[in-house]
Amino acid sequence: MILSEKTRWLLLTLLLASWVLVLSASAQGEYIIGEGDLIKITVYDNPDLTTEARVSGDGKITLPLVGEVMVNRLTANEAEKKIASLLEDGYIVKPQVSIFIEEYKSKKVTVLGEVARPGLVVLRGAYSLMEAISDAGGITLNAGDTLYIQRKGIKGGEKKETDGRGKEDPGLAVDLKKLFEEGDASANVPVQDGDSIYVPRAAFVYVNGEVKNPGAYKITKGLTVLKAITIAGGFTPKAGDSRTRIIRKTAGGETTIKAKMDDLALPDDIILVPESMF
Fold first, then answer.
1. Cβ–Cβ < 8 Å for 240, 275
2. Second label for 160, Cα 20 to 30 Å away, from 103, 124, 213, 256?
3. What digits encode the pLDDT tens for the residues 79-93?
4. H or E segment at 39?
5. Are residues 47 and 155 in the same domain?
């Protein structure tokens, strides 16, 4: 059975959602606490010490008995041990401290382009690329075959590396087919605070005239004029296939060229199949 592109992407979206549930199950244990996060601290058998605290701009929270505690850049487990040590110093015998992240605010990535809800995504623990895309509503039907991740440098400035030809490197490239269809774990890379994820729009070719299903079609690797016409349902009986033309955008406007069936289709090409003269 051949699935339509819309059905295929719907199935991929459902698969993505199921994977995200599995991947996010262990996320909190790896999360690094930061400014703006709201955390809940409980001490076993000491309910009066239960506290909800927002991490301040200088990375601290305030707790009963011990006062200010620096928790910035600690995991929940590390913060638990630090607070327990402070409470044990003259206050409680062998305190058992638990921390739960009530609100994740300190770490974000930007997801732009062909996703359902472009914008900021808050990282709720150790986050993967699939989780970030899922929180942005998933990719659209117009998404290209590759997405790009730009990562900030150590000092907070975005790296401006080149691709070896003097042009700025668009970032880490991830093959969406490997990520969604093939389930390649290496494609599901971890994302970090400050990352920018961009899903470009796919390039399209337009097939018009004497074909069975005129319209816009995604350009895939190696797409020729003949393949594009085949995807569009093939020639109609009235087609003058030998007179097929390509209307192609150029720097100076548009140009019309005689099409060869093995010519590669370029973005925004219009393949025009005229009616036969006989």
1. yes
2. 124
3. 999 999 999 998 999
4. strand 38-43
5. no
- Give the end of a domain, one of 146, 170, 199: 199
Give pLDDT tens digits for 106-139: 889 999 999 999 999 998 877 899 999 999 999 9
CA–CA gap between residue 71 and residue 40 (Å, rounded): 13
The alpha carbons of the chain give a radius of gyration, in whole angstroms, of 27
Range(s) of the domain holding residue 21: 5-28+107-199
DSSP 211: B
Contact between 95 and 43 under an 8 Å Cβ cutoff? The reply is yes
- Residue 278 located in a structural domain: no
Residue 139, beta-bridge partner list: 115
Q: Which of 139, 224, 226 is nearest to 177 (CA)?
A: 139
- Residue 83: CB atoms within 10 A of its CB come to 24
The answer to whether 259 touches 246, Cβ cutoff 8 Å, is: yes
- Residues 124, 104 contacting (CB under 8 angstroms): yes
CATH code of the domain in which 236 resides: 3.10.560.10
Answer yes or no: is 89 within a domain: yes
What pairs with residue 181 in β-bridges? Answer: none
